[in-house]
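Quick log. Single chain, no ligands specified.
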Amino acid sequence: MPKNMKVLFAASEALPFASTGGLADVIGSLPSALVRNGVDARVVIPCYSSIKHKNSSDITYLCDFTVKLAWRNQYCGLFTAVSNGITFYLIDNEYYFNRQSLYGSYDDGERFAFFCKAVLDMLPRIDFFPDILHTNDWQAALSGIYLKQIYRHGDQRYRPIRVVHSIHNIEFQGIFDHAILGDVFDLPSQLASIVDYNGCINLTKGAIVCCDRLTTVSPTYAKEIRSPSFAFGLQHIINQYSFKTVGIINGIDQDYYNPETDQTIVHRYSSPEGKAKNKLALQHELGLAENVNTPMISMITRLTSQKGLDLVTAVIDEFLCDDVQFVLLGTGDPGFESFFRRLEEKHPSKVRSIIAYDKALSKKIYASSDIFLMPSKTEPCGLAQMIASRYGTVPVVRETGGLYDTVKYYNDVTGDGNGFTFSRYNAHDMLYTLRKAVGLYRDFRDKWNELADKIMKIDFSWNVSAYRYTELYRDVLSLER
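-> predicted structure:
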């Protein structure tokens, strides 16, 4: 086992360079925590055009080379940048990555197959052969498949590398027609069984078969995905390889999300009482009635059914009969976007629906609102409930996945717990729980402030999780070769 362990994270996004959600937060912060544990952790992501436009002065050109992908011989530029003490490698190809968005193109399979090939081809060019290749989600899955099935048989420098694969959300698996096995993914027909699942290519299935360890982003989610209700059809392969599976809860970057030092918010604070100025400022900015005593409930979320929005749409008008304010920030399903726009038109004095992705505004909302609503149908880990807690905003969540692992029901007698929870996927259970939280806020402000003060001090940092990942890596490296 190497004294100074080397780990390379391969992912499709990472803060501060490119982000659509929680994956970017994880890849932007976990490696830093590992470095503090003595691990040489580095990251490789695609060099999207938005990265070059925003960060051109901070990016250094290293080299360029040709990547062979089936019959294609494609240019690959390799750049590097340092952020938060971590070395990032950026895989550049204008044809594949000069797009308006990170995902959703007709050729996403080919784009990320190129990326995965380039990840392995760059290793001798940077003279960095990691002990662990840590791949994330289907977009990076082929790196582990190529490594185990092809590269390790041709160059002995690749043979010792072990693969850890992380599933951040099993709903997105990388499913394609078998017709493109060779032409797009450059996999020979004898490897078809590795990626075949239910008659299709399934890159997540292939990653599960090929990796040395499979991780999910919370212990409860690791158990949930063994059942058909949560596995989106992959339960059979998950159960077959359950001996590989470990659930490790995500953390958050507590320096980035720190109300005492956050330059984004109007008023920095270290206790719940300090939220009042931020609340008044946000009410003024959004054109809501400026009343510090009106409970403000917020949601910062992707607008998809997975996030429990059908529960919200079912009872939100009933909830808005109370003296409350509701602020939503997010984008997603056009049907939900339209619903929340109409909701604001119907309740202009109580509702603001900001249909956008806005990191700075999200932090203002965390710092201003009193209650954070997260009624997810499924939630592999969830970071928003931890971020909200960091800003003293009390979470109301459904007991699933990482929400169950991180939020426990508040007992106003004993003071135990750190939020409000409900178990059944039921709109009126959610409404009842939400009103319990509002009632505590209105009628027992001292207890509310004690709760808010307590959750601000919970250690949701990466320290514990990074230690568990380090131990996992050591365990993987001790396996017989």
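DSSP finds 19 helices and 18 strands in the chain.
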